[in-house]
Amino acid sequence: MKDMDHQHMDMPGMDHDKMDMDDMPGGHMMHMGNLKLKFWVSLVMAIPIILMTPMMGLKLPFQFTFTGSDWVVTAIGTALFFYGGKTFLDSAKMELADRKPAMMTLIAMGISVAYIYSLYAVIMNNIVDPSHHVMDFFWELATLIVIMLLGHWIEMNAIMAAGDAVQKLAELLPKQAHVMDENNEIKEVDLTQVKVGNVLLVKGNETIPADGLIISGKTSVDEAMITGESKQVEKTIDDKVVGGSVNGNGEITMTVTGTGETGYLAQVVKLVSKAQSEKSNTETLADKVAGYLFYAALSVGILAFIVWMFTGTFSQALSILVTVLVIACPHALGLAIPLVVARSTSLSAKNGLLIKNRNALEVAHTIDTLLVDKTGTLTEGHFVVTNYQTYSKDFSESEIIGLMASLERGSTHPLGKGIIQKAEDLSLQIPTANDTQQINGVGLEGHIKDDLYKIVSEAYVKKNQLLTDELVSDDEGDSISYLIQNDKVIGYAAQGDQIKRESFGLVEQLTKMGIKTIMLTGDNQHAAEKVGVKLGIEDVRANLMPEDKAKIVVQLEGEGHNVIMVGDGINDAPSLAGATIGMAIGSGTDVAVDSADVILVKSNPTDIVKFLTLSRNTRLKMIQNLWWGAGYNIIALPLAAGILAPIGFILSPLVGAVVMSLSTIVVAVNAITLHD
């Protein structure tokens, strides 16, 4: 892996409290627990209102009234408006402050008009002029608040809680470090006290606490968090190490060049935070429709009020205005999307998909490019013995694996686990090794019978000139471990990633859907191209850092492409957050999962195609439901405003209520018919 210069910057979000929130339609958020409680309390308050008030003038068989019931309904309705309606009123203020009225503004307008006019109706009916009945809208107020809260709850319950990827990145660093003073004494200090220039001791298998430069010792470091590749990188004096990567068996001392607030992770955090912030501002399809409907209802209502002021009475004009604004209440529109999302996420779960960001379902039809990580996404993501060979007439190939497994028995090193697994797969009788011990930065050694055996790296063999032309392997791109018997190389085992069976055929399916596939990987070009050739991926980009992947996403989107990024590692987090749709492998890191919009639970690449197919069906249902929800308003608003009054027809509130109820039922039934 090539060295890199780490820029120094503040670590954004490192001290932020973890938020337990979900996106609400309209781009606003609230606690899931609060929403659930608010719905149930609002429902309890709505029931007596529904029982004691008519629906737009229509008294239903189960309804009843009694002396003073108007005042009871007014009291309960007031409590419901300020308690259950507060969510929508507060969110509407935010939408209006952003000059982007959408669903929350439309709902807020509906409940505000219904409440204020109902207060007016109660006062007129009971105090000012009891002889002339003025219709109230408490029934509409109660049902709208409850249905809208239910819609948000359904949607939020269907979509997983988005975790805090920034917090997960912060947790990669250990809480303490071993600081070495000028007398070479070691002290345990809190990581926040570590400063640039400090000398740290990093023991075997510990997480490296900060960016730094090795000043003594040899080791191998797992830098999967940077490159995403399951490969140990040899490190020695003057080599750079990155905070958050995992030290191997060797012990090293290092000089700190960057702390938790100025090191490499800060770059990744900044990229993730910026991308998530930009994506959260995406306007949903329902918000756009609601915004148009808000302007339409307001314009039609005001125009109708002015016309009726000149052609009728103030009372008629006010009644027409209120009827128009209340009929615009988005009962069906508010449920149109949540019901489809709930149905879609249920089908997704059955297909091994978890949808975290609703917008992913709405924009998937625009995708024309798939960016896919190699290790852990297209491949298995862990060390597997891909080839092994003997150089000695005294040992067979399987015996080489058996001897290596003997030395590796009990090892926690990824390469050791791969050797042991291969021996188990071959059902080998593993001999007993004695006096096994680590060779810092090299491998390990031990005695089997009377001979000394060593498992060493390719670098060790070359350095000690033990590798002749006849012993050079052709497994470029894999990690090679050589077995030495009494200073003579007798065999080797190559370990690398195996391509997932499900990866074959993926590119062909995506091509049929008009989507180009590009591989992005931190691995070397040769290893990446080997996988690319086998899978039919022509565009392969290797040796990439997290910021490189993020730049490619930005570049492609700047050229007008809509991209899906699929990955599994910390190094993929910035590009996952920044892509049009970020898709994480379920077996990947918490940071990758929290940065993504969609999770492939089964870690199966072919589920990408399932998601695209389901999302296209989902969007079709969304559009159909929006037409049903908004279509009712398109017809009802001008009729309620009196556009056909010259021929003696005005849509009565009663008929409007019936049509509104029917449109809600149609929306619900249409959502249920969604299939994968």
From TrEMBL:
- UniProt-listed Enzyme Commission number(s): 7.2.2.8
Q: What transmembrane ranges does the database entry give? A: 39-58, 64-83, 104-125, 137-154, 289-311, 317-341, 626-648, 654-674
Q: Where in the cell is it found?
A: Cell membrane; Endomembrane system
UniProt GO MF annotations: hydrolase activity
Where is the major localization of this protein? membrane
Name the domain of life this protein comes from.
Answer: Bacteria
| Record domain P-type ATPase A: where | 171-272
> Topology relative to the membrane, per the entry?
Multi-pass membrane protein
InterPro entries named among the record's database cross-references:
ATPase_P-typ_cyto_dom_N, ATPase_P-typ_P_site, ATPase_P-typ_TM_dom_sf, ATPase_P-typ_transduc_dom_A_sf, ATPase_P-type_domA, HAD-like_sf, HAD_sf, P-typ_ATPase_IB
Q: Which reaction does it catalyse?
A: Cu(+)(in) + ATP + H2O = Cu(+)(out) + ADP + phosphate + H(+)
Give the residues annotated as coiled coil.
none
Q: Name one Pfam family in it.
A: E1-E2_ATPase
Keywords of the record, alphabetical order, are:
ATP-binding, Cell membrane, Copper, Copper transport, Hydrolase, Ion transport, Membrane, Metal-binding, Nucleotide-binding, Translocase, Transmembrane, Transmembrane helix, Transport
**Which EC class, in a word?**
translocase
Write out the similarity annotation.
Belongs to the cation transport ATPase (P-type) (TC 3.A.3) family. Type IB subfamily.
This one is known as: P-type Cu(+) transporter
